[in-house]
Amino acid sequence: MINKTRGILYKLAKLLGDLSAISSRKPGKVTKRITRRITGKATGRVFRKLFK
């Protein structure tokens, strides 16, 4: 129960961060966010393979 709630809250926080980046109207903010998300996913995959 707690794990599901935590997962939902993390997804909601991620979504709110995306909306915040879009609504800020700063030129590079959305691009930075997308780049960081892609980099984070790739890093997670590498670490998953290393410590499996």
List key phrases describing it.
single chain; 52 residues; mainly alpha
What is this structure's SSE topology?
Elements: H1 2-24, H2 29-50
- Count of distinct strands: 0
Q: Which stretches are low in confidence, meaning pLDDT under 50 for 5 or more residues running?
A: none
Question: Helicity range of the residues?
Answer: over 70%
Strand content: under 5%
Structure annotation, total helices: 2
What does this structure look like?
- The chain is an all-alpha fold.
- It has one domain (2-50).
- It is built from 2 helices and no strands.
- The protein has helices at residues 2-24, 29-50.
- The longest helix is centred in the N-terminal third of the chain and has 23 residues, at 2-24.
Question: What is this entry, summarized?
Answer:
This protein has about 50 residues and is mainly alpha-helical. The chain is built from two helices and no strands.
